[in-house]
Amino acid sequence: MKELDVVGAAIVRDGAILCARRGPGGPLAGLWEFPGGKIEPNELPHDALVREIREELGCEISVDANVNSHTHSYPFARITLHTYVCSIVAGDPVPTEHSEVTWLRPSELHSLDWAPADIPAVTALARRNI
Question: What is the mean pLDDT of residues 15-27?
Fold first, then answer.
């Protein structure tokens, strides 16, 4: 089975966290996730996250703290997701790869239909006072 290391950004602004819905046609279409993507060979997780958010949302972030790392097996790959709390330092997020984004308070996160690999980070963030 293919193994992938990926990063996700729990971008926080004014006490809310950015959630992104996967677009149609791909794996996990329509499910919610923290935006991010694959860590390239010889790339540090923080650098991968900054790059992915610039590509997917057109804004610049700072990577502030690790939320957790979790491994989940999908039929198409075994994913290790490293999720970080991040802050926007320049620009406003505009989705280019997701069908929509929304901002939710930590207590509201469980109201969405999340990709399974993201659920442990959702649970950890829902317990935090952000």
Answer: 94
Which contiguous run of DSSP H or E holds residue 50? helix 45-57
Q: What is the pLDDT of residues 33-66, one digit of tens each?
A: 999 999 999 999 999 999 999 999 999 999 999 9
pLDDT: which is higher, 14 or 25: 14
As for how many domains the chain has, the answer is 1
User: Considering just the CA atoms, what is the radius of gyration of the chain in Å?
Assistant: 13
CATH code of residue 104: 3.90.79.10
Structure-block tokens of residue 14: 């004014």
Instruction: State whether residue 107 is helix, strand or coil.
Output: helix
Q: Could you tell me the two tokens for 26?
A: 């791909």
List the domain range (segments joined by +) for residue 115. Answer: 3-126
Other residues' Cβ atoms within 10 Å of the Cβ of residue 68: 14
CB 34 within 8 A of CB 118: yes
Q: Do β-strands 16-22 and 3-13 pair in parallel, antiparallel, or remain unpaired?
A: antiparallel
Per the DSSP assignment, residues forming a β-bridge with 6 are: 38, 81
Question: What length does the chain have?
Answer: 130
Closest among 7, 4, 3 to 82, alpha carbons compared? 7
